[in-house]
Amino acid sequence: MLKTIKAPSLSTVLKASTVAGLATAVLATGVPLEITRSYAEAVKVEAPSVPSFANVVDAVSPAVVSVRVESRVKPVSDEDGNGFSFDFNGRGFDDLPDALKPFFRQFGEQQGRRGPPGAHPPGPGHEGRLRPVAQGSGFFISEDGYIVTNNHVVSDGAAFVAVMKDGTELDAKLIGKDPRTDLAVLKVDGKGKKFTYVNWADDNNVRVGDWVVAVGNPFGLGGTVTAGIVSARGRDIGSGPYDDYLQVDAAVNRGNSGGPTFNLSGQVVGINTAIFSPSGGSVGIAFAIPASTAKDVVADLMKDGQVSRGYLGVQIQPVTKDIADSLGLSEASGALVVNAQAGTPGEKAGMKAGDVVTAVNGETVKDARDLSRRIGAMTPGKKVELSVWRSGKSQSLTVELGTLPAEQQQAATDDGDQAPEAQTPASEKALADLGLTVGPADDGKGLQITGIDPNSDAADKGIKEGEKITSVNNQEVSTADDVVKVLNQAKKDGRTRALFQIQSKDGSRFVALPVENQG
Q1: Catalytic residue list contains 457
Q2: In a domain, 366, yes or no
Q3: Is residue 351 included in any domain, yes or no?
Q4: Mean pLDDT throughout 38-51?
Q5: Domain-located, residue 359
Q6: Contact at 8 Å (CB) between 186 and 175?
Q7: What value, to the nearest 5°, has the Cα angle with vertex 382 and ends 380 and 388?
Q8: Is 120 designated active site?
Q9: Does pLDDT of 23 surpass 80?
Q10: What domain count does the chain have?
Q11: Which of 66, 231, 257, 471 is flagged as catalytic?
Q12: Distance, CA of 486 to CA of 484 (rounded, Å)
């Protein structure tokens, strides 16, 4: 017969455990009962898979270099404290007490050896010595040593050094530079060595929101990697007629200029060239030259050391909604011709002020920048077909492109004769509805603006006293009656705006003003 053993109650077990401070309790029968203490587990989260940039960085880093720029700096004179320039309320080195002169002389010599460019003691061998003046970034674009960087990095340099990831320093030669796109190409001699290089990305596949990785030399720290996304495309930051930047939010700082921004395939989507920063450091708004622009410019620089661009020779401006209304255009697009310079390809082809270029070889022109980029990307001597809107209808013009001059002159000269002092000639007549007071111009061409109502549309559009009205709706005017006549005709034609051509000492421009109240 089996013997029945009565187990102790749970309270008895817990009491025994508590009193004894042990993890076991003994039953009345002598059989131990195991009690296991409970511990909290460490937090562990199953995170979603996130792509790492490590593989991209490992592959592209050998192709990225730091660019050190040196220039010949004129040394300072012995009379300036042995290379150290200072001033204490107008007192110079010779005015110091004799006891202090040795100290400042020694300090000046130390500054000369270790200080900024130019702060070194002059003497034999110092005249024209190369000194570091800038640093930036760059990257190999071919296995035989061609390096891409920014023009503003190398523009003041006389000698260049490319520092590779492993610290190797290689002297570099400037092959060519293009200030208009801020690009430059250097070349190093690897003595038969084949360099790791990178390729360009296809702009058509770059989308806002894509991951990008920037590699460069911020603040001289050497190979530094940051990541972000493409924030926007087609940014115009006012740096020139070819602005078409990618905006990225990867951290880009001083020294990153000329460095590449990669996609996750290790291809260059852009070249870092500028940042927006109230503080001087990264605030997450950086601009990169897109691969499509850089690819063609770099190829030209590698081939000829310079870039040859197509040239129309016309001054253009954007088409605003008001201007489109004044010209009878259905939408605000295209490029408005302000002036066709004499003797240029555009003038020879019949382009006139007031024309709106709407297409090039059948491809729609979005705006003035788009036209500049399209023409600039074409080969000089090439014939192109321009669609222009003139006098309410579309026309076609054939233009043989010229070569963009190295230093294109301004459309208007500043000789002091174009903006005379405001006068009050007898024939002055007020165009009160527009806020303009006008009189005959001294040269007999156009109307001088002698007064502006500060609360008028004309003032809001930036028209100033002293400027001239040369035409209205592409019709030349020389009296106030001429202006009123054109405005009345525009009103009959159902137009709500009229296009005024305004001439100032800075050039010519078009401004659209309302005609509803003209009668």
Answers
A1: no
A2: yes
A3: yes
A4: 80
A5: yes
A6: yes
A7: 105
A8: no
A9: no
A10: 3
A11: 257
A12: 6
CATH number of the domain where residue 489 is located: 2.30.42.10
Give the whole-number percent of the chain exceeding pLDDT 70: 75
Distance CA 315, CA 343 (A): 14
292 and 333 assigned to the same domain? no
* Rg (the chain; Cα; Å): 36
Among residues 182, 249, 322, 433, which one is catalytic?
182
State both tokens at 107.
Answer: 């300090």
The predicted-structure confidence for 255-295, as pLDDT tens digits, reads as follows: 999 999 999 999 999 999 998 877 778 889 999 999 999 99
> Is 371 domain-assigned?
yes
The candidate with the shortest Cα–Cα distance to 368, out of 356, 377, 380, 379, is: 356
Choose one of 278, 304, 330: the last residue of a domain: 304
SS3 of the chain: helix, strand, coil, percent, to 5: 20, 30, 50
Give the C-alpha separation, 309 to 405, whole Å.
9
Contact between 172 and 184 (Cβ < 8 Å): no
Query: Which CATH number does the domain housing residue 217 bear?
Result: 2.40.10.10
From 66, 120, 137, 152, active-site residue:
152
**Last residue of one domain, picked from the residues 304, 324, 359:** 304
Domain encompassing residue 505: 429-514
- Give residue 514's Cα distance to chain centre: 35
Q: Which 3 state secondary structure label does DSSP give 178?
A: strand
What pLDDT does residue 429 have? 43
- Residue 316 and residue 376: Cα distance in Å, rounded? 14
Same domain, 434 and 465: yes
Residues 249 and 323 in one domain: no
**327 and 285 within one domain:** no
| Under 8 Å between Cβ of 185 and 140 | no
Is 152 tagged catalytic? yes
